[in-house]
Amino acid sequence: MATRDPSMICCFRLLFLLLFSVPLIASSSSWASMHHNNWAVLVCTSRYWSDSESGYPGFKFSFCNKLPRYHIEINSCNSKLEVERFNYRHMANTLSLYRTVKRLGIPDERIILMLADDMACNMRNNYPAQVFNNENHQLNLYGDNVEVDYRGYEVTVENFMRVLTGRHDPAVPRSKRLLSDEGSHILLYMTGHGGDEFLKFQDSEELQSHDLADAVKQMKEKNRFKELLIMVDTCQAATLFNQVLSSLISDDPICSLHYALLPHDCAATSVLDFGSSMSQYLAYGYAFLPAFKHILILQSPGVLAIGSSMKGENSYSHHLDSDIGVSVVDRFTYYTLAFFEKLNMYSNASLSSLFNSYNPRTLMSTAYYRMDLYQRPLPEVPVTSFFGSVMKTIHTDAAYMGLSIPPKTEAQFLPGDGGNHQLRIENEPDLEKDGNKQTKELHCIYHEWLNLLQERFENTDAELLFRYGFGTMVFLLTISTWLLA
Amino acid sequence: MAVKEEGDTSQQGKKSRSRLILRLGALLVAHSGLVSVVCCAAGIIAFILLPVLANNTYISENALMPGSADPAFSSQEVLDANRLTMDILNRGAAKASGIEIAKLLREYIVAVGAESYYHKFVPRANKFHPLHFFSSTTDNLDLPANPSCGSFILNAVGIIRAPRGDGKETIVLVTPYNSQNTTYSDAVSLGIGFSIFSLLSHVTWLAKDIVWLAADSRYGEYTTVDSWLKDYHGPAFPGETSRIVDDACFEENNSDSLDHIKVEGHNSYVYKRAGTMAAALVLKVVDKKEEERDSLSIYAEASNGQMPNLDLINIAHYLAVHRQGLRVKIGSIIYFLKASWVKLLGEMLQHITTLAKRLNPKWKFDITSADYVEGTATLASSIYYQALGVPTGSHGAFRNYQVDAVTLEFSPRSSLNNENVRSAFLLKTGRLIEGVIRSVNNLLEKFHQSFFLYFLTAPHKYVSVGIYMIPFGILIAPLPIVAAALFSSNNGSSNKDGSWKWLQAAKVVFLIHLWAMITSLLPYVLLQLPLGTPSSFASAWAAVAICFLLITYLILWSSSIDCGWELLKSVMIVAAAIGLSLMSVINFSTAQIGAMLIVPMCLLVKPARKQTQGVFAKALMLTSNLALLVVAFPPAALLIAKTLFGASGNIDIGDFWEWAQILWSWNSATYMYLLWIHLPCWVLCLNIFLYPCIGSSSKA
C-alpha cells in the first residue's frame, strides 16, 4: 500500500483536477448554450366582467386602470388594493399579445395561455364568442385557433408557480407544461389587478413579488431558461419584480460579496471576465468550491423585467368600446401592440427601441424596466428574441446529413457569400453566427475522420484490418485483466 | 376644574382620586342645566347646518359603469312607442272595459316574442292590524266574505329571458296606468315601457331577465304592484280559494272576452316568474307643461323611511344629467323655498362660510344662499316623507321585499301632442331607462356599495347617516344627564326615605305608557262599531282614551303625588330617551322630528305652581312650558303644520282620524312612535306641569 502512495497521490491530484474542472466545464457549457427555442407564458388573472371590489360605503378607494375621465380620486392611489372597473380589457390584452407572439413565430405548443375568465362567452358581451381590443371591431382576437391552456378557475397562483417551476402532477399533459430548457428565451406576460408588490389572481388569491422571485430563482436553478423577459401590465407593476434581484443574488456568499465589491457589474460579468477575477476567488480557498457553479450561473441571470407603471402609479385603460360598454385595452399593452404591428418576424427592431417607445405622457404612467440582471446591451437585442422564435433552417442537399455528403460541396457553399445562399431566418444574428461556426468546425473534423477511414477501407484489405483489430482487442483484454489482478 | 368639582363632594376623604370618567360624569351632572342648554342649542344648530354638510354623490359600485355603453334606443323604438300609444288611445276610447288595454299589451308582448301572462287580483282595503307592523305580508289570509265580481284588476306582464343568462336575477319595469280613465300621459308611459321592452327583447347583452309589469292602477298603483309582488314571492297553490273565486268572477263577468281566452288558452293566466329582483324601475309620464326643459323627478322613499341604495338614484341622475340633458328634480317643500327666515339664514351662512374659507381654504363648506334655501327645502321634504313612513309611490312595495326601486317620473317641456316634442322626449327617456337597465345588468351582486341611510338635499347631494346622527346624538345627550341630576338631587335631599321612592314614579310612568298602548289599539275595537264618519270615529277614540286616562289617574293619584315631581320627571326623561333612541334605529326621521319637540319639553317642564324668584323668570318659564306643551301635542302639531304649510280649508276633528288611518294602513312605525312614546311623554309632562307641588321644595 505504502509503495503505491506517490502514484496514488498523483492519481488523486489528477482526479481532483478533473473533479474541479468538471463543474467548470459543465457550467460554462450551460452558460454558453445556445438560444434555440422560445416560450411565452401569457397570464390574465382577473375574473368577472366588471369588478366591484371595494371597501365600505363612504370610504372610497380610488379607481385604477380606468378611463381618465372617470377618474374621481378621493384618496391617493397608494391604498393597498387598487380597484378597477373593467376586466374585459385584461383578457383582450392577453389575447392581443398572444396573437402578436404567434404572428411573430412562437408556435402554439410553446405558448402557455392562462385566462381567468371567459369574457367571450360572458352573457354581457355584446358580441358573443368574440373579443376585441379595439372599438373598430376589425380584429376578433378570439378566433378559431386560440389554444387556452389554463382557463377559469384553473388560473391560480399554485398552477402559475407550477408552470414556471415545472413541478407538475404526473397527470398534467405536456401541452400545459412549460418545457423550456437552458437554451430557452421565455416571455412572461402578466396582466390583472395589481398593487404594491402583488398581483391579484381571480378574486381570492394574490401572487406576491416574493413568490415570483422564488419561481424565477427556481427556474434559474433548474436551468429552465436562458433569458427571461417579465412584462407586467397592472397598477404599480414595477413593484412586482422588486424581489427578483435580491432573491437571485442574496443567498450566495461569493456573489453577494462580489456584488458588494463590484456592485455595477456583478450581474453583468460574463464568462470572459471570469478569468480575470478567478485569482480573486481562489484567494478565498477551496471552501467555496461548490459555490462556483452558482457563481457562474448567477453572473448573469438573464432576467429582464418591464412594468407598465411605477410604484404609486395607476395603469390606465386606453379607450372604451361604447358598444360593449367596457374598456377594451390597457394603454401599456395598446402601445406595445402598436409597436409590434409595424414589425414582422424578420425585423431587427431592438428591445431598447420598444422600451423607448413608451411615452409616459400617452401611457399616463411610467413604464419602468430593470436590466441589472441582464447583461446584453438592449440596443443589440432584437425584440424577436423574446416575442418571436428562433427558426433556423440550414440548407442541405439531402434530407439527412451523413456519409454521402462530400466535403467539397460544403466547402463550395461556405466560402461564398453564405448569408445569401443559406436559407436562414435571422432572428439572432450574433449568436447564430457563433453557433454556425461551431457547427462548421465540428462538421469538418467529423468528415476528416470519415474520409481517413474511407481511404483506408479503399486501399487495404478489409479482412486484414479486421484481424489487426481483433488482435489488438485480445491484447488489451489480457493487459487489463493483468492490471486488475 | 374637574378635580375641583369633585373636591366639593362629601366623598373626598374616602376616594380622592376616582376614575376620570366618573369625575367627568359627575361634572356633567352637576352642571346639567348648562349642559342641556348647550347641547340642545348645538343639536338644533347642527341640524340646521345639514344642507351645508351635504356631500356630492358619487357612484360607489364600480361595476355599474353608467353611460359607458352607447344606447341602442333609436327612432325605430320611438315609432314602436307611438304605435302603441295610438292603439291604446283608440281602443281604450272605444271600449272602456278594464281589460281592453291589458289584452292589447299582451298582444304586443307576444308579437315581440317574449313570454307573457295576465296577473289578476281582487283589491282589498287595508285594515288596521295591531300586530302587523313591520310585516310586509298583510292580509294574506282574510278573504273578503263576498268578493264583488266587477272589481278585479288585470295586469299584463311580459318576461324576457336573457338569451345567455342564467335566469337567476331579473330587473323589473313597472308602468302604472289607469284602465278606467286612461290619460294621454298614461298611454305614453305604456308606449315607453313597451318600446324599451321590445328593444331589450333583441339585445345580446342581457345577463338578467327583464320583467315588464303594466300595472292597472285603478285602485291605486301601490295595491296593484304590491299584490303582484306578493304573488311573485309567495307560493301559489293551485287549489287556493281566492284564485278560484277570481277565476270564476273573471270568466262570468267577461263573456265578451271569453272567446279570446279560449283562443289563448288557460296558459295565459299561469303566473310566471323570473329570478330574484335586482332592481325595479317605475316609469311614469306626467304632462305638466310649464318646464323650460324636459325633466325627471325621482321618488325613492319607501315605507318607514326606507330608501333604495343611493347608487340607483346616482345612476339615474348621472345618465339624466350627463347623457340625456334632463333636469332632475326631487321633492321639496315649497314653504321653505319661500320662507324669508330660511333665506336670511342662508345669507348668514354664506357670509360665515366665505369667512371660514378665507381662514382655511381647505374647508369645503362653500354654500350660496340660494343653494342653502333649496337644500333646506329638499332636505325638509326628504325628512318629512321618511318620517311619515308612507311610500311616495309604488316603488315602496318593492322595498318590502328588499328590492331597490325608484319611481322615475318624466315630464316633457311642452305638450306631448306635438309630434317633434314627443319623439325627442321619448328618445331621451328611452335612452335613460336603457342606460339604467344596462348598468344594473352589469351588476354581479345586489346593490350594496353605497348608502341605504341618507337624506337628499339635492339630486346630487346627500347627507349620510354618519353626519345626520350627530345632531340627533347631541340633542338627546342631555336627557340622561338631566335625569341623573334630578335623581341625585332628590336622593340627596331625602336620604332617610331610602332610594326606593323612584319605584313609585316608575309605576306611574309605566301605567301611563300602558294606557298609551291601549289607546293605540283602540281603533281596532272602534272599527268594529258601526260609526259613520271619520269625525265620529275620532271623537269616540278621544273620549274613550280620556276616560281610560282618568281611570288611570284615579288609581295613581296617591303615588304620583307621593313620589315628588322631580323623580317623576327623571323617570319620564329616561323613558323618553330610551324611546327616542329605539325610534332612531327604526325610523330616524321620525325620531329626529320627535326629539326636536320632546327634548325641550322634557327638559323645561316644571310645575306651574312652583315658587321661583322673580316674576319675569316665572312668566318666561310658564309661557315656554305652555307653548311647548301645546306644540308637542300631536294633533296640535298637525294643525300647526297644516296652517304653516298653507293647507287651506276648515279643520275637522275627523282629519285626525283619517291621518291616523293613513299611518296604520301603511304600517308606519310613526303611528307607534306617536302613541307609544310621544303621547305618554306629553301626558306626563302635562301631569308635571299641573303638579300640585305640596311636598317637594327642592331648588333644582
TrEMBL record, chain A:
Q: Which UniProt keywords apply?
A: GPI-anchor biosynthesis, Signal
Q: Which GO cellular component term is one of those annotated? A: GPI-anchor transamidase complex
Q: What family is this?
A: Belongs to the peptidase C13 family.
Pathway of action: Glycolipid biosynthesis; glycosylphosphatidylinositol-anchor biosynthesis
Q: Would you tell me the protein name for this molecule?
A: GPI-anchor transamidase
GO biological process: any one? proteolysis
- Is the keyword Signal in the record? yes
Q: Provide the leader sequence positions.
A: 1-26
Superkingdom per UniProt: Eukaryota
Q: Where is the active site?
A: H193, C235 (nucleophile)
Q: Name one GO molecular function term.
A: GPI-anchor transamidase activity
